[in-house]
Every structure is written in structure tokens, then in C-alpha cells.
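Q: Given only this backbone (148 positions), what sequence would you predict?
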């Protein structure tokens, strides 16, 4: 299974003066979805860091189609692709029970040591995550983002 879904109830503090989710908060929602996707596949991000591996964001993109509002229950669908040194997470945000996409985006993460040097995923992590990723798609997403 390459996809997962994370639920987030919009809190009052997630919204701006207009009563809609503040644009930057979607990156936090993406982080929650990403962490839960990793957890669902038998490991936590804390365990990855404890083993000396970091996964910093090296690219992020968000496309806003429609706003979410206070108390909306959001479903954040997540699909992941990987190379030997990068993970790409693609996100689609919808209101629970509504098929219309509100927000979509992606984040790309590099595999680096604590010293910041690029490194391949260690075999133990690759074995945990590789069965749950789809073919690498971020080159397509990057090209599409540049066209928008």
C-alpha cells in the first residue's frame, strides 16, 4: 500500500482573521500526514533520527484551490515515492466525506547524516519503506509546478 490518510480537525488557532486556514499551516498538516505515514509502516521519525539519519525538506510546493475553515475535518491523502537518497510525499487535502480537493502539494526530503552529508537509506529503513512507495514522481511534479 503506497497511500495513507491522515485526519486533522481544524482548530481555531489554525485559522486567520478571515476564518480560513492560514496558508502556511498546510505545511504543518503535511508534516502530520508524513509522520503518520512513516509510523503506519512500522517505524517512527524519532527512531530514524536516533539512528543518525535526518530527512530535511529540500523542496515544498502547495497549490490552494479552496479554503478549509474552523472545525472542518480534513482528510490528507498521502502517496510516497523514493530513490536511494530521497523521499517525495504528495498530499491531497479534502473535507471528510467530500471528494473535492481543497489543497494539493508535495514535499521532497533528502537523506542526510546528522553532519548534513547526503547518504543512501540504510538497509533496515529501505526494507521498511520500499514496499510502500510508488515509482518516483517528483520530476513530473517539479515540471508541472514550473508550468503553473
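A: Predicted residues:
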Amino acid at each position: 500500500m503506497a497511500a495513507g490518510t491522515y485526519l486533522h480537525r481544524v482548530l481555531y488557532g489554525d485559522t486567520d482573521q478571515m476564518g480560513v486556514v492560514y496558508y502556511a499551516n498546510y505545511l504543518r498538516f503535511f508534516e502530520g500526514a508524513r509522520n503518520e505515514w512513516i509510523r503506519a509502516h512500522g517505524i517512527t521519525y524519532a527512531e530514524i533520527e536516533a539512528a543518525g539519519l535526518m530527512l530535511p525538506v529540500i523542496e515544498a510546493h502547495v497549490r490552494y484551490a479552496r479554503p478549509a475553515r474552523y472545525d472542518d475535518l480534513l482528510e490528507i491523502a498521502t502517496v510516497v515515492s523514493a530513490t536511494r537518497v530521497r523521499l517525495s510525499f504528495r498530499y491531497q487535502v479534502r473535507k471528510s466525506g467530500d471528494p473535492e480537493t481543497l489543497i494539493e502539494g508535495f514535499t521532497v526530503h533528502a537523506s542526510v547524516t546528522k553532519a548534513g552529508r547526503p547518504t543512501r537509506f540504510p538497509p533496515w529503513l529501505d526494507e521498511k519503506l520500499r514496499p510502500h512507495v510508488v515509482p518516483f514522481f517528483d520530476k513530473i511534479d517539479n515540471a508541472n509546478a514550473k508550468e503553473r
